[in-house]
Amino acid sequence: MTVASPLHPHPPGAVPVIRLESVQKSFTLPNGERFDAVRALSLDIHAGDIFGLIGKSGAGKSTLLRLINLLERPDAGRVVVGGRDLTTLSRAELRGTRQSLGMIFQQFNLIQNATVADNVAFPLKIHGHHSRAETKARVRECLELVGLESKIDSYPAQLSGGQKQRVAIARALAPRPQVLLCDEPTSALDSETTQELLATLRDINQQIGVTIVIVTHELPVVELLCRQVAILEQGELVEQFAVDAPPAQRLTALGREIDALVRRRARDAQEALAATGHATRANAVEQGVAYA
Ligand SMILES: Nc1ncnc2c1ncn2[C@@H]1O[C@H](COP(=O)(O)OP(=O)(O)OP(=O)(O)O)[C@@H](O)[C@H]1O
């Protein structure tokens, strides 16, 4: 049996949950010119991963994320999710397959005049096949996952930004997707709320194994949350690496910045550990205890 290691988390030959093959997307600008937002880009994302897409503004990150669930249809290339090429599916088939691709957004996109429970139940209701009791139980389960059971009867206006994003996560998870696509999910949040939300996303990934793909412009988000990162420049994938891999010769400034953040955190953790050791030793000496 082939075993995954922390540095190579995917056993050789493992089939990716998402495979983009030479995807291409252009837009026509108001002046009639064509703009290539994503250029012949290929990428594999494996089941259970937390995968960051980063790059400067306009690099094509959000377009790439929206290509994964075909909110944007590629001009060329294949988008294979769970072994199916989404570009070949009928509308009805695509609607069904989108159930396996949950999505959250920077501005939460909740239904304002519906309660938290109804927001989370929404994807279950529009896709039918669920009894009232099943829907109710699933809503509660998803709100528990994001720590928001107590807000089940609240309306979005009564919630903080972080709580709204948690409701959006619960709603995205309700149909049991394989993948959660996150488009700048923490951009509207302060840094403390961001940290809490990242912890929630990490827990969810660990507990239910959902694959997370996240677009962000905040490098600490990549460093704290992601296992893999892909760096985009002008619609092309220029670099990809495992965030916890030893620092290496990186091709991009963003890659080097991520390495520096990882190194700094490792150093801080070591210093904190050493400080704890010193404190323990000093304490022991103070109390006249022999310290081995
Ligand atoms: N519907 C559209 N019509 C025309 N141009 C578009 C459209 N959507 C995106 N673009 C252009 O494509 C390019 C890539 O956009 P995209 O939103 O994917 O970039 P991004 O890397 O996510 O940027 P940001 O971090 O600023 O959100 C941008 O120049 C954008 O203006």
From TrEMBL:
Which GO molecular function terms does the record list? Answer: ATP binding; ATP hydrolysis activity
- Gene Ontology BP annotations: amino acid transport
Question: Which residue numbers delimit the ABC transporter domain?
Answer: 18-259
TM ranges: none
Tell me yes or no: is Translocase among this UniProt entry's keywords.
yes
Family matches, as InterPro entries: AAA+_ATPase (IPR003593), ABC_transporter-like_ATP-bd (IPR003439), ABC_transporter-like_CS (IPR017871), MetN_ABC_transporter-like (IPR050086), P-loop_NTPase (IPR027417)
Q: Which UniProt keywords apply?
A: Amino-acid transport, ATP-binding, Cell membrane, Membrane, Nucleotide-binding, Translocase, Transport
Translocase among the record's keywords?
yes
Question: What cellular component terms from Gene Ontology apply here?
Answer: plasma membrane
Q: What does this protein do?
A: Part of the ABC transporter FtsEX involved in cellular division. Important for assembly or stability of the septal ring.
Sequence similarity: Belongs to the ABC transporter superfamily.
Supply the name of the protein.
Answer: Cell division ATP-binding protein FtsE
Q: What is the lineage of its organism?
A: Bacteria, Pseudomonadati, Pseudomonadota, Betaproteobacteria, Burkholderiales
